[in-house]
């Protein structure tokens, strides 16, 4: 009897039947790739709009790093705060930023073209919607600043794709990404501060969508400095709170809660969820921006440990940016895909992948709960039956 052949062993000459979708794609790609077609489509009234949008989209991909560096310069120079009280003339801005006037004008015009600033008819520059949004969310500026490390790690993206480097800037910034049991107190301050600042953009959206009124005790795993729990406590005065994070981070959280006068309402546990046993006593457990940091080999036992730590009827909530989010596909797959690759741990997962992992860990009643800005965080809840 002939041995069964796998797909990759099939003789190269064997005819491959292509479905209509694949044949249509091949025809379409061949046509779009043709410079003559491109020229024609850019002039023909019914295709001109599509051709221009595609040209612009491809140009934006080529130029994205320049746009990001324009924003970086604005943040470094604190330009948005300078313009917060009102528009200023370019010469005044140049003086205040200590830049040569013609260079300052280059920056101002670039920022205006990117909708960060607006140029008034009298020539002064003021904040536009995106610049004003930066003022309201100072953690975005902190994110932009920390991107200098990601930028350096992505300088040779093919090398990053080929070999997992021992050390990248981001793996040093996120010391737990290496999986070691110990993280030094002085190595957590930077990332933990960034997370605490940016949690303000997320906690409200997640807690709007998360029903906790029937819960007695919420434990936030990888809870950082406690910002999510602060907001949960404010909204649900009946809740008692627990936080688990690595010892130096849990200590920072404990100090914050103590100075806010939380007393015995909150307990901060210093330890690693990789050890497989979690503190019990909570009837709700949240994992906010935690799961995507870790490979499946860490997440699977973590979800089983969450299941074991909950009583029957206990609730688990996973909140984080997820892959495949409609209208935000590049945020999951491109930004977080490459970010986590540079960091050396974890991957963005789709809601369906997370739901399957929850099911595998023994959870039921798995639901996606709509959040206000799903591109920043989606929410999935499930129950232990
Ligand atoms: C007033 C009148 C008359 C009309 C107004 C018209 C109108 C409605 C305008 C809308 C204006 C408005 C409300 C704008 C709001 C804009 C907002 C809120 C923008 C928010 C932007 C948020 C951004 C850019 C967030 C960026 C987040 C980043 C880059 C996050 C990175 C996260 C990282 C690196 C996390 C790391 C953690 C790890 C390691 C993966 O676990
Ligand atoms: C990306 S941060 C998110 C922090 C917080 N939940 C938030 O959204 O702002 C991930 C958190 O998980 C913590 N963490 C990472 N590995 C851990 C482990 N093995 N055990 C406990 N906490 C861990 C980190 O210290 C960090 O505070």
Automatic annotation (TrEMBL):
Pfam family, one: Methyltransf_2
Record Gene3D superfamilies: Vaccinia Virus protein VP39, Winged helix-like DNA-binding domain superfamily/Winged helix DNA-binding domain
InterPro entries: COMT-like, COMT_C, COMT_dimerisation, SAM-dependent_MTases_sf, WH-like_DNA-bd_sf, WH_DNA-bd_sf
GO biological process, one term: methylation
MF (Gene Ontology): O-methyltransferase activity; protein dimerization activity
Active site residues per record: 292
Domain of life: Bacteria
Keywords, comma-separated and alphabetical: Methyltransferase, S-adenosyl-L-methionine, Transferase
Residue ranges of domain O-methyltransferase C-terminal in the record: 184-363
Residues of the O-methyltransferase dimerisation domain: 60-133
Classification via PANTHER family: O-METHYLTRANSFERASE CICE, PUTATIVE (AFU_ORTHOLOGUE AFUA_4G14580)-RELATED
Name this protein carries in UniProt: Demethylspheroidene O-methyltransferase
Organism of provenance: Methylorubrum salsuginis
